[in-house]
């Protein structure tokens, strides 16, 4: 598989290393220096694009791939207000795209576990639930995309709360705490606390390999497909 990398930072470089180990080739590396000059023909030399750049750039990158009918895997977080319009554009152009707030297989299992736990906790309103995410200090968005997906999973299954809120939350809101600590790849925890006890589930990424491998597996999945997909389609969760 020939890969175009939109974004060649921490994630782009990790993806290149793991993609080579799986027999794939990176044919295009796009960063701030060459992004403006990339042509549709250059994009079309790849079988798939993998996008891990910056929140404010994701929409433009996805649009370029859709217009070139190049399937695109999107890992960048913090742009999801554009998701529905990009989904429409993808379907109109008969292209393919898959975005995930977190590509790690472990986190996608954690998402399923989180929903199950929220269902179990629904009748037990004496517990107070909160989400905490910890990331490295270069992270541009807060809360993390993963924490938002976790919060949505709780709110869908636990009707005691109305919406999520970053840091300060009222009794009817789900608090997400965002902590920034140097060099942390990504830690997410859900805690239900009462005066009597605490139930917690936690995912700790030890490095970025899980995110990168999941994105490559998603790229292998999307080749020759048309439409909009999620990691649930890839992992059959
Ligand atoms: N969904 C998931 O599983 C995961 C998502 N992420 C998300 O992925 C994104 C990237 O993370 P990470 O790799 O750690 O970030 P980095 O800051 O390490 O890398 C960002 C890259 O984007 C590049 N860039 C800047 N401007 C442009 C441009 N105009 N066109 C193309 N590329 C450009 C930068 O290039 P330059 O160096 O030239 O400035 C850099 O190579 C973030 O949004 C993060 O939240 C991260 C991990 C997992
Ligand atoms: O910026 C990061 O690094 C990460 N971002 C993603 C997110 O916002 O959830 C995924 C992962 O936690 C790492």
UniProtKB/TrEMBL annotation:
Q: Decide whether keyword Cytoplasm is in the record.
A: yes
- Residues at the catalytic site: 135 (proton donor/acceptor), 139 (proton donor)
Q: Which reaction is recorded as catalysed by this protein?
A: (S)-2,3,4,5-tetrahydrodipicolinate + NAD(+) + H2O = (2S,4S)-4-hydroxy-2,3,4,5-tetrahydrodipicolinate + NADH + H(+); (S)-2,3,4,5-tetrahydrodipicolinate + NADP(+) + H2O = (2S,4S)-4-hydroxy-2,3,4,5-tetrahydrodipicolinate + NADPH + H(+)
The reply on keyword Calcium is no
Q: Which GO terms describe its cellular component?
A: cytosol
Q: For this protein, what is the EC number?
A: 1.17.1.8
Family to which this protein belongs: Belongs to the DapB family.
Q: What is this protein called?
A: 4-hydroxy-tetrahydrodipicolinate reductase
Organism, by scientific name, is Acidiluteibacter ferrifornacis
């Amino acid at each position: 598989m020939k890969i175009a990398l939109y974004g060649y930072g921490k994630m782009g470089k990790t993806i290149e290393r793991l993609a080579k180990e799986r027999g794939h080739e990176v044919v295009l590396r796009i960063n701030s220096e060459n992004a403006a000059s990339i042509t549709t023909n250059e994009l079309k030399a790849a079988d798939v694009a993998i996008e891990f750049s910056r929140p404010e750039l994701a929409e433009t990158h996805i649009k370029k791939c859709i217009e070139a009918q190049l399937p695109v895997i999107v890992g960048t977080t913090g742009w999801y207000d554009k998701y529905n319009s990009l989904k429409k554009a993808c379907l109109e152009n008969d292209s393919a795209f898959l975005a995930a707030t977190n590509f790690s297989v472990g986190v996608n299992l954690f998402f399923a576990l989180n929903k199950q736990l929220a269902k179990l906790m629904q009748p037990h309103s004496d517990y107070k639930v909160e989400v905490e995410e910890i990331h490295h200090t270069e992270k541009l968005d807060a809360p993390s995309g993963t924490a938002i997906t976790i919060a949505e999973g709780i709110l869908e299954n636990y009707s005691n709360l109305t919406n999520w809120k970053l840091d300060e939350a009222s009794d009817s809101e789900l608090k997400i705490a965002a902590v920034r600590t140097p060099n942390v790849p990504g830690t997410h925890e859900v805690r239900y606390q009462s005066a009597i006890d605490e139930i917690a589930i936690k995912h700790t990424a030890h490095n970025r390999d899980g995110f990168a491998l999941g994105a490559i597996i998603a790229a292998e999945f999307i080749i020759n497909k048309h439409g909009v997909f999620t990691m649930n389609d890839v992992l059959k969760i």
